[in-house]
Every structure is written in C-alpha cells, then in structure tokens.
Write a structure and sequence with these properties.
The protein is α/β, with parallel strands linked by helices and 262 residues long. Helices cover 27% and strands 25% of the residues. The strands form four sheets. Strands 3-2-1-4-7-15-16-17 form an eight-stranded mixed beta sheet, with helices on both faces. α2 links the parallel β1 and β2.
Length: 262
C-alpha cells in the first residue's frame, strides 16, 4: 500500500506516476534502470493492463527488460525500434541546467545510447537528487577490463588538470569480485566532490584509451519530474523554460509497487 511507503519512496512513486503522462499509445519508449525508473515501468505496466496502452519498450539493462516483461510491456531492442519517442529514466544527480550524473546502477552506457536515440529524455527523481554543482555523487566511468589499472592511473593523472576537488577513484565491486556491466566491462567510480566544468570533463574522459563512456549526461535531458514525499510533483522543462506544480493523492489500496527495493 502506498500509505506504507517511506517519504522517499512516495516521492519516487509520484514522480513516476506523473512521468507516465508523457507516454502515449503507439510510442516507442526507452525504459531506464534503477529504483526510480522501476516505479515508472510498473506504472506503465499497470496502464498496459488496465487501460490497453500499447507501447514498445527499449530497456537499458537486463534487469529492466525482465521487469518490463513481467508487467506486460512489449520489449524490443534499440535496433528494432531504431528511434524512440521518449526515454524516461532516473538520475543520481541533476543541476539547474538539467545536466546529470548517472550510472549508480552500472547501466550508464546503454542508458546514454538509448537517451540520445530519443526525441525527448525525461528524468524522474526525488528532490534529494537536485544539486547546485555536480560531483557529490561519485562519477561512474565504464572501462574495458583489459588494462583497467593503467586506465585508472591515466584517469587520476588527467584529473590533476581538471576543475575538480577530488581525484581518487575506486573499482566498483560486486562482493569480492569486480562489478561487470551488461556489456562485460568494469566501472570506476571517480570521487570528485565537485565538478567545475562538466562539459570539459566529459569530453576529456571519453578521449582516454580504455574508457568506454562516462556518466555525465550533458545537454541530453529535456525535462525533469521531481517528486516530494507529500505527493507534490514539479515538472521543469528546459526547452520551454517552464515549471509546473501539481499534487497526486495516494490511494490506500494494494498496488504493484510494494515489492520494489532500492
């Protein structure tokens, strides 16, 4: 029951519920990865079941694909869809220009490919993800396993000349072994604390041999849907320059969301 959800989960739920309004019958929809995006997938699944919504979903990870199939969404590959009407995904951080840090779930490569193959990218997040300057959340970069320690040393050396406060990095682990992405790569988390020039950093990182992609999403997000624990929802559209507020009431009935975990 939504009434049993924590304030953070309520915020995620109302953001996802509002973002579902961007999806119309017949659309090809990019489905993000992570706890907030999972709420959106569940909301869309409910619309498919109860309202007859017909969409084709392009997941950004194997776990999102599994969830989408479970709730009745038709899943296709990006190659099959070719181009998407909208991608809806979460974010680890966003700033006032709707630049993002993504990749906390390790799916940043597929997320960025799908987002840039869309007419519109919408981010759903709770208000806690808003920051004045990106960088408090560790910046993930996906690197190939071959020579990853050499790549790590090169990245840390390059960070000396970047406008950042921290320059350490750690290999993301999954228990006692390195985390492996859906593409078979590793993740290095850069602990930067503050990123002064995100655009420059994104370009420099992607020029390094061994780096596949970085978690900075610059000029990709078109709108952010921000949820609050009291049911308030705020929609900021960077292209229209608008901010809209609304409120969603919680219905004290069983729903599809109580089994979702962070």
């Amino acid at each position: 029951m939504t009434g049993e959800l924590s304030p953070i989960d309520k915020a995620k739920f109302v953001a996802a519920k509002r973002a579902a309004d961007y999806v119309e019958d017949g659309m090809r929809v990019g489905l993000g990865t992570g706890s907030t995006a999972a709420w959106l997938v569940r909301c869309l699944g409910e619309m498919v079941r109860d309202e007859g919504l017909r969409i084709k979903g392009v997941p950004t990870s194997t776990r999102t694909a599994q969830l989408a199939k479970e709730v009745g969404i038709q899943v296709v590959s990006l190659d099959e869809a070719r181009w998407l009407d909208v991608t809806i995904d979460g974010a680890d951080e966003f700033d006032s220009e709707l630049n993002l840090i993504k990749g906390g779930g390790g799916a940043l490569l597929q997320e960025k490919i799908v987002a840039t193959a869309s007419d519109q990218m919408v981010v759903i997040a709770d208000i806690g993800k808003q920051v004045e300057t990106l960088g408090a959340f560790p910046l993930p970069i996906e690197v190939i396993p071959f020579g990853w320690q050499t790549t790590q040393a090169l990245v840390e050396e390059t960070l000396i000349s970047m406008d950042v406060l921290g320059r350490t990095s750690t290999l993301r682990m999954n228990g006692d072994t390195p985390f492996v992405t859906d593409e078979g790569n590793h993740i290095l988390d850069l602990h930067l604390n503050r990123i002064g020039n995100a655009r420059q950093l994104a370009l420099v990182l992607n020029q390094m041999p061994g780096v596949v992609e970085n978690g900075l999403f610059i000029d990709i997000c078109d709108a952010v849907v921000i949820g609050y624990g009291d049911g308030k929802v705020e929609v900021r559209d960077i292209n229209e320059g608008t901010v809209e507020e609304s409120r969603l009431d919680f219905v004290e009935t069983d729903n599809l969301f109580t089994d979702l975990a962070d």
